[in-house]
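Service request form, structural biology core

Requester: graduate student, group of Dr. S.
Request type: structure prediction, single chain
Budget code: on file
Notes: please return the result as structure tokens.

Sequence provided:
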Amino acid sequence: MGLLHDIHNGLDGLTSDLALGSPANLRAQGNHGCLQLEVLAVEQLACSLGQIVYHANQPFAESQEDLKTLGDELARRVNYLLEPIGSQELDGQSTTLQMRSVPPSVDRDHRSYYELLLRLNGQIELTRYEQADRSPRTKTPLELTRQVLVRLAEDFDGLASGE
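Core staff response, request fulfilled:
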């Protein structure tokens, strides 16, 4: 049925599982890959996620330069989160492009930001972190409306298709 159907039906079906207090895993199939969600909480209009991972059916690119180009395209597409995402660093050995919020949200003594890892093998990971001054960063939930989650899934799937 597609990402929209899988996400909405999957989230609707998780409400009783999440009442037990443990995260649930949800998988949604796209045309060019699959989305895996660690769901922490679900409401009618929004959800709280630990992490979003997309696995494309095929590798995204053949070279690091292609990966940088895809990172630029992904940053152009994903312009609706709390902060814009921008390319940061390419790890040549693991062929991973690390992207983060530019700039991060700053609130008194801590900052929050998205981290998006784009891998040559066709994987995208989106996580949100929080870091207080002089402290290690900690993972914090991604708070997204269902509409934004579906749009994100479609953008990841569109990137995998080359559209």
